[in-house]
User: Which sequence fits this backbone?
């Protein structure tokens, strides 16, 4: 049977056909759809875990119990899960344990473009890299097999152009699915990593990699294609496909086992061709290994070390290096006629984060510039301290860093905002400071930061933007939503109860669409000497649909101050001096933020 | 089939991805090798969307080269102009004549290109340009949501895939109660293309 599948769909299907029992993940682009697809399949257990570390530990436990298990995450998620990932390498497995890391070269939706292939060598585990959906499907079963055969977790590395690219996959019409019966066999020497048990495991890990090194020499998916022998390309993953596109005539060694590398196979290929170019996205992971073996190859002299690779860049660089003839101009025009306006990502119309972002913009640095001082009609916030600092986190609300909101001052990684705000305060910075974090991110890794602030007698104000879902990645459940990964009812962790339990006394729950209330609460909380939490609650308009009566502008009353344009709503457009609200985009009177900032009261629901 | 690279661009919410998904499926069932890669970035509703759809005997990279798009199907004028450098001199550009100004334009930071400018920008690469009032046509049919089906109908005339393949896919993909409307939108787009290409 032929199907058109994305890499993520193929991995999900391959895992189930490969005997998967338990899958745990935290959503993150470009990995999210793997668990979403698994959640529609029968006979397996799936969950959105609170974070990647927990997902990894759940998968470890399932494996210890004899089940084949998956932990799925984006590249930076593996940083969060690194501790149990290394521990799993130490203990080894019972049921096959596969960790899927979806990297994001080019940072389509990430804060960095770290190359997670390094984790394989670092943690001493084997790694497989598919180069299309067919391989993503087929390798999943092999990954479980390798895991069990060699008593090791397997790192399965994808990238955006594998995970999100659809290609044709041939799958068996009626796959034979075998699952082992769950059974835990006690073995403290293997599963209890006190130093005396851990020490003898390390030589076993080294021996394991040595055995894997010979196993991968005959791994069927590594493939040599001998064509013109004047140039040989060694590549893997999406980079391999781009290279096939550009170097039509060259010989190829496609590597699926990127760690450990099949040294004999590589040496044979290198001896068959005159020059060798290693084409890899991001770091010279394979190239460095080959050079350490004394092989004469080139790589990063030609292929960029930063950003996502594509055929255009590769061809340009290869031609400049004289590896291929200069491409004849496929197109006559090299420069665009003019700078075209960008279309940066924005908060959606009716977004419950908009009012808070707008309040932070008013209180923050943006409005504290001298010339702006009088523009804000609201009561002055301790002007001598200049702007309020908003330490932000990872989520849709991070988009408030862009114009026109310009509301945020930091954003580093999941859960960082609360600790950063605490550190700014303890360093003696005199500005008022808030941390801004979404509900899912707070439950992911914000809680520990807040516990720290309480214990270490901080006076931080934590704003939890609670839209009742994991919005940025497409509305997955989390412990605060009351919905499981399969969309069924689940117990709900109530954030206000949780933070009271931590010991925060000043807990406020406010309506996300009440700008004055949100701003007043922030202004009050930042003046107190104890930790405070403001839960700003309002539904995500893409998650909980439904519209009120759309807003409209009365041109007779509008004095063209354009304040409404500064809330950054896509539904509000300007045509000359006239402001219009797109009734199709406006969510109507369930938001009304534009009306709240209109000092002429010219904006009303129709 | 000879290689056909189709670049579909637009704004989040216009149905670009749904359309390219359908087209990819139809092409696969018609026996082509297919690769499709979407770029959404962090775009929520209203961001730039681009879908690379490549058909042929054997497709390697999922990404269309600059100058390599055989067809550009732009759901919006600015997103048509933005991707003009992927056109070659024999490429076909189909641009839906609608403007969705981004906030940078609304705020006055930059100017939205006029129809004439878009024509001129694309005209530097190819003279096979079709500007069609797709949004208006969809509205006239009673539902602006059928824009993507209508545009696929227009595009279908230029592809090496028989008409029944599209009809069959639509019949499976679209809910029964809006099927007739969608079939009509597909036919409307196709008629428009046939009318415009007659005599070429």
Assistant:
């Amino acid at each position: 049977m032929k199907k058109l599948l994305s890499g993520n769909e193929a991995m999900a299907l391959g895992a189930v056909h490969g005997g998967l029992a338990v899958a745990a993940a935290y959503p993150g682009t470009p990995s999210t759809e793997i668990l979403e697809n698994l959640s529609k399949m029968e006979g397996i257990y799936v969950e959105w875990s609170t974070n990647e570390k927990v997902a990894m530990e759940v998968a470890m436990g399932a494996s210890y119990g004899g089940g084949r298990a998956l932990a799925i995450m984006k590249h930076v998620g593996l940083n969060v899960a690194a501790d149990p990932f290394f521990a799993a390498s130490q203990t080894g497995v019972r049921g096959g344990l596969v960790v899927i890391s979806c990297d994001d070269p080019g940072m389509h939706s990430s804060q960095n473009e770290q190359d997670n292939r390094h984790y394989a060598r670092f943690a001493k585990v084997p790694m497989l890299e598919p180069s299309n959906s067919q391989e993503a499907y087929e390798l999943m079963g092999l990954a479980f097999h390798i895991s069990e055969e060699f008593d090791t977790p397997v790192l399965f590395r994808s990238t955006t152009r594998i995970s999100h690219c659809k290609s044709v996959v041939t799958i068996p019409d009626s796959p034979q699915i075998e699952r082992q019966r769950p059974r835990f066999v006690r073995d403290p020497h293997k599963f209890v990593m006190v130093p005396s048990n851990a020490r003898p495991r390390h030589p076993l890990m080294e021996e394991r990699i040595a055995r894997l090194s010979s196993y991968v020499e005959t791994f069927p998916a590594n493939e040599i294609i001998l064509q013109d022998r004047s140039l040989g390309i060694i590549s893997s993953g999406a980079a391999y496909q781009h290279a096939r596109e550009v170097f039509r005539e060259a010989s190829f060694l496609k590597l699926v086992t990127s760690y450990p590398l099949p040294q004999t196979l590589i040496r044979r290929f290198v001896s068959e061709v005159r020059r060798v170019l290693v084409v890899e996205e991001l770091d010279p992971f394979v190239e460095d290994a080959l050079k350490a073996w004394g092989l004469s190859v080139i790589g990063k002299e030609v292929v960029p070390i930063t950003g996502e690779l594509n055929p255009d860049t590769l061809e340009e660089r290869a031609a400049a290096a004289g590896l291929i003839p200069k491409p004849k101009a496929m197109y006559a025009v090299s420069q665009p006629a003019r700078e075209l306006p960008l279309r940066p990502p924005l908060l959606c119309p009716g977004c419950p984060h908009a009012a808070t972002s707008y309040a932070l913009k008013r209180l923050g640095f943006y409005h504290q510039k001298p010339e702006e001082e009088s523009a804000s009609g609201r009561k002055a916030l301790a002007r001598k301290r200049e702007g309020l600092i908003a330490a932000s986190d990872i989520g849709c609300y991070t988009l408030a860093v862009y114009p026109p909101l310009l509301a945020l001052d930091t954003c580093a990684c999941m859960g960082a905002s609360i600790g950063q705000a605490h550190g700014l305060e303890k360093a003696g910075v005199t500005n008022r400071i808030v941390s801004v974090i979404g509900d899912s991110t707070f439950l992911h890794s914000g809680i520990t930061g807040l516990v720290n602030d309480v214990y270490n007698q901080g006076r931080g104000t934590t704003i939890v933007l609670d839209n009742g879902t994991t919005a940025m990645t497409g509305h997955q459940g989390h412990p605060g939503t009351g919905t499981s990964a399969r969309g069924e009812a689940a117990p709900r962790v109530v954030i206000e109860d949780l933070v009271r339990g931590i010991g925060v006394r000043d807990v406020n729950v406010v309506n996300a669409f009440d700008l004055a209330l949100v701003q007043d609460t922030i202004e009050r909380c930042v003046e107190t000497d104890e930790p405070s939490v403001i839960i700003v609650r309002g539904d995500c308009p893409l998650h909980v649909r439904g519209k009120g009566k759309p807003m409209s502008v009365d041109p007779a009353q509008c004095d063209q101050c354009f304040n409404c344009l500064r809330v950054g709503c896509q539904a509000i457009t300007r045509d000359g001096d006239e402001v219009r609200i797109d009734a199709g985009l406006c969510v109507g009177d369930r938001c009304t933020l534009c009306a709240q900032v209109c000092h002429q009261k010219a904006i009303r629901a129709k | 089939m000879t290689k056909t690279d189709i670049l579909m661009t637009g704004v989040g919410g216009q149905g670009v991805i749904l359309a390219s998904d359908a087209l990819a499926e139809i092409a696969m069932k018609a026996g082509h090798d297919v690769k499709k890669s979407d770029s959404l970035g962090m775009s929520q509703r209203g961001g730039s969307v681009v879908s690379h759809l490549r058909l042929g005997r054997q497709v390697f990279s999922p990404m269309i080269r600059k100058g390599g798009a055989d067809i550009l199907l732009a759901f919006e004028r600015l997103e048509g102009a933005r991707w003009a450098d992927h056109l070659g001199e024999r490429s076909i550009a189909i641009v839906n004549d609608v403007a969705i100004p981004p906030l940078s334009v609304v705020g006055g930071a930059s100017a939205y290109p006029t129809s004439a400018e878009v024509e001129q920008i694309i005209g530097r690469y190819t003279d096979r340009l079709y500007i069609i009032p797709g949004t208006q046509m969809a509205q006239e049919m009673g539902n602006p949501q059928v824009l993507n089906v209508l545009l696929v109908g227009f595009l279908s005339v230029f592809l090496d895939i028989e008409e029944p393949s599209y009809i069959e896919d639509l019949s499976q993909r679209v809910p029964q109660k809006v099927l007739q409307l969608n079939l009509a939108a597909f036919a409307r787009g196709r008629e428009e293309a046939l009318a415009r290409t007659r005599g070429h």
